[in-house]
Q: What sequence folds into this?
């Protein structure tokens, strides 16, 4: 696939048409590419567990996160409703000395490790499967493809493509590095894995490791390594169920077109129906994979069934 950096509108339109899955699973579909992740694929993923070692792939949800307020995205605010102090003072009103603690968290659903739901991005007023965006997502939420529909399905064979180690210097890709299909396939070959129908693919760039070492800086919304727009054909043709990266925006930033914002999202979500994860912590898993040479594993990453949500926090668990 060629890319004309001066023609984002035309390039997006042509790619969207070539990669469209509209109608593939019927006009009422709410799962998109998760339809590729069937019972057989889950059995295949479960059979990969041999050592029983597990890895959380989530960043922590706290005030020390990367968010800086862009479009009202803030870091989580955690507040206690009941504390041990209240219990010790006997002011909770419970009988026979019992006490307890309760808390609340306030946060944007996409402020840390998360999934982008199918109602997150539109193309010229069209949502996933060709639906009118104004009839899908309203002030009451995503009335059609709310992420609650996906809660039971995101579990199966996970594959790590550690492009940072395979292609980068010192295990990391520089900001602005565009990961092409050739990089993805070469990394898979180097790791001895295949990527195909129903897989959940994790792409490590190393940017999160750099941000932790040097400070958040512009991690949330700034320049970053990521997938090239030219990978749209691979994302469609490989029939993967989902993909996640360790970066804020999944695709390369700055984007490859002049005067463009997240063009790969504009194809991948509303046209391919692809589930996209961002800000995943792949460091511990990647280190283990580098040691034992095994880059496939059981992965479960269910979104919270928040009715009408267009994204969800997630604590993905990889088990080898």
A:
């Amino acid at each position: 696939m060629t890319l004309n950096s001066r023609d984002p509108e035309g390039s997006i339109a042509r790619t969207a048409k070539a990669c469209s899955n509209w109608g593939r699973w019927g006009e009422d579909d709410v799962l998109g590419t998760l339809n590729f992740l069937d019972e057989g694929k889950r059995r295949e993923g479960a059979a990969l567990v041999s050592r029983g070692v597990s890895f959380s792939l989530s960043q922590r949800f706290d005030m020390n996160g990367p968010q800086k307020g862009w479009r009202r995205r803030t870091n989580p605010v955690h507040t206690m409703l009941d504390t041990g102090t209240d219990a010790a003072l006997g002011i909770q009103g419970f009988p026979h000395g019992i006490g307890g603690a309760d808390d609340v968290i306030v946060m944007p659903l996409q402020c840390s490790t998360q999934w982008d739901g199918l109602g997150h991005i539109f193309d010229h007023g069209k949502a996933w499967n060709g639906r009118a965006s104004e009839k899908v997502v309203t002030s009451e939420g995503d009335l059609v493809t709310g992420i609650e529909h996906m809660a039971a399905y995101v579990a199966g064979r996970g594959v790590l493509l550690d492009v940072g180690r395979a292609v980068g210097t010192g295990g990391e890709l520089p900001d602005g590095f565009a990961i092409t299909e050739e990089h993805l396939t070469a990394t898979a070959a180097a790791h001895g894995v295949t990527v195909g129908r129903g897989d959940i693919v994790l792409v490590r760039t190393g940017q999160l490791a750099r941000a932790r070492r040097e400070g958040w800086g512009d991690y949330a919304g700034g320049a970053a390594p990521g997938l090239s727009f030219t990978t749209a054909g691979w994302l469609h043709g490989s029939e993967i169920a989902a993909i996640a990266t360790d970066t804020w925006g999944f695709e390369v930033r700055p984007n490859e077109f002049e005067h463009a914002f997240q063009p790969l999202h504009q194809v991948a979500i509303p046209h391919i129906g692809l589930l996209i994860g961002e800000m995943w912590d792949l460091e511990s898993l990647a280190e283990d994979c580098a040691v034992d040479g095994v880059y496939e594993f059981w992965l479960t990453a269910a979104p919270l069934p928040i009715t009408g949500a267009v994204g969800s926090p997630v604590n993905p668990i990889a088990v080898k």
About this structure: The chain has two domains: 8-70+109-319, 75-106. The longest helix spans residues 8-18. The CA atoms of residues 77 and 222 lie 23 Å apart. The longest strand covers residues 155-162.
